[in-house]
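Lab channel / #folding
Pinned by the channel admin:
"Please post every new chain as: sequence first, then the structure tokens as a reply. Keep commentary short and put observations after the output so the thread stays searchable."

First post following the new format, from NK:
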Amino acid sequence: MVPLLTYWIYPPEIKISAGADTWAVEKLSTMGKITQKELMMAALAFVALVLWIFAGAWLDSTMIATTVLVLMILTRTISWEDLLEYRQAWNMLIWFGTLVALADGLKETGFLKWFATATSGLLKGLPIMMIVMLMVAVYYLVHYMFASLTAHATALLPVFLTAVILVPSMPLKLVAMLLCYTSGISCMLTPFASGPSAIYYGGGYISRLDFLRLGAIFGVVFLSGLLLIGVPYLSWFLSL
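Reply from TO:
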């Protein structure tokens, strides 16, 4: 449904790609062979990726990124002028970092714990599967207050799981799986919902209003699919 809905509600400006292959060949020819700087950039990016994955217990991810950036400048892979002129990156760093700090503030002040506890309290007395679906929907929609999938899961997942554990006959494995699955479909709700969404928005091709509008539309589609198809399927699958 995603390609069809996208084509209908946000049609592309260019609908015919005749000659695209010829254009691509010409551009590649103009670029020439891979340069030493490009090889160095690829090597440093690979080192950063490996350290992010395997060295998290010893090195902070921000330190790794900063160190690799400094190495890029010292090896003249990029220049300081290149760094200063990349306005989109600086713009994204400032407002995305601010939103991450604000979301973390909600956790530090205890608002998120209060919100999750209050939500679970309002659902008492409802049928079990209704509670499951409402908890998943609330957890999903609350991502509008977060600027990171990791921050969302770290702050709210333990609280929501603690709340549902107290409900008698609650299918805990089903709830845990559904809550985790929302991370894969809530990353496009807002321009700040995740790192990739911020990068896409920072490219300047999609306006803020269009991003929020499309995020809301597809957010409803994905959440409906998870609840109306995912819940019955997982309930059947886990019962086998």
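NK: The mean pLDDT is 84.
TO: also worth noting, The first helix runs from residue 2 to 9.
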